[in-house]
């Protein structure tokens, strides 16, 4: 068999649409994951045992259920009780909830890693616990969590390929259509391999650069 990628040229725009949909879904899901992760991380560090246990239950539950099962529950299960959500929204919500469980671990680790000296300095300055947390603790925790949150985003990009199972034509969904139209699945999936590898590499590189910059700024502020 001869590899002939030229047959895909007429379909590049079609595949690009799928790639853009993948990035859009992942970008929205990352925002949702970070917001949810912050709330859960705060709950897990709460002095209330019940709140802390509920937060732990959420993390433990969604980290131990296959994503495809979660996705099918939202898309195929909820309509049985009268809740209908379109495929794109379902994908974003499912990715956000699953990603939030992992994001909460990263943010919680960032919160627990903060130097006690910073907290003591804020207390001496007369800042309330709420102001200290929202203006000092949380910003620092998010900065130090950039790299693990980047891993959450990369995992989302890879996991988003499963969204094609609920009729969402993101990158993998579009590739399936092209493969069936051209009868050349080998070439289509070679390109798909390269595109996913390129996307995750670029995200990883961007996260590394952002992490270095934020760390440099933070060190300058502390010194």
What does this structure look like?
- The protein has 223 residues and is mainly alpha-helical.
- The chain has a single domain, classed as Orthogonal Bundle (MetI-like fold).
- 78% of the residues lie in helices and 0% in strands.
- It is built from nine helices and no strands.
- Helix 1 (12-44) crosses helix 4, helix 1 packs antiparallel against helix 8 and helix 7 (146-159) runs antiparallel to helix 9 (185-222).
- The longest helix is centred in the last third of the chain and has 38 residues, at 185-222.
- It is globular and about 70 Å long.
- It starts with 11 loop residues before the first helix and ends with a helix.
- The mean pLDDT is 90.
- Keywords: Amino-acid transport, Cell membrane, Membrane, Transmembrane, Transmembrane helix, Transport.
- It comes from Devosia insulae DS-56.
- One of its GO terms (biological process) is amino acid transport.
